[in-house]
Amino acid sequence: MSAIHTTGHRDARDRARAPGTFGRLVQDGWALVFGEVRHTRLRPTRHAFRYPAFHLRVPVDRLPSDGCGSALFGVNRPGLLSFHEADHGTGGRALAFIRGLLAEAGVRAEGAVWLHTFPRVLGYTFKPVSFWHCHDADGRLAAVVAEVNNTFGERHCYLLAHADGTPLRAGEELRAHKVFHVSPFCAVEGAYRFRFLSNGRRSVARIDLDDAHGPLLVTSLSGELHPLRAQAALRALLLHPAFTVMVILRIHWHALKLWLKRVPFHRKPAPPEGFVTRASK
Question: Span 113-140, mean pLDDT?
């Protein structure tokens, strides 16, 4: 009886010392990135905007298998803010998806995987682009996968990695042919130029689009990283209470502006046959 009594007290003390939802997430490296989105169209008429924004940095290789959460933030569970693996890849387990994509492409990236993406806010999200940062066993950046969604419910991935397995350098320019329809005001042609910078405190993703006449679009998503504590989650909700709804509303608002400016309109083509497009040199 004494042994059982002692074990019960020890289990209670262990539960008391165990971190709560946010303590667990901070330990695993979850972060909120507060910054801004910038977008500039250069031709045939200049059109630019910038908005304050925030997004998640998710440690994909350390996702809790059973989910976790609270009313404020949930992982594969409802919350005022939440992350759901079903919103990415092919809708299954995120780590299995990205490991499978890289293995099929012959990219060795067995190390940490960080996903930069918009969360669900009040249960809703639209993710124009998310970035999977995939590292090798030595901690070097082996590949970045840009996962793009359009407003027609379609998804496509651009795999940015060197064919010879050389790690990606900070700020290195990576190119991929545009094959996926995003905006009716841009034809499916030309090439993207990607650049990524991160120093552990600040993250920058730059995507520019060139067509046959030169630079057409200049865009970026940047911000400062803050550990995903309750205070950071509350800050995100207070500053951006309807953030992901506003993402989709702003997309349509600026589409209307471009239409009024008589920017040429392109009908949506069929999606590409393959789910992944590899970077070109």
Answer: 97
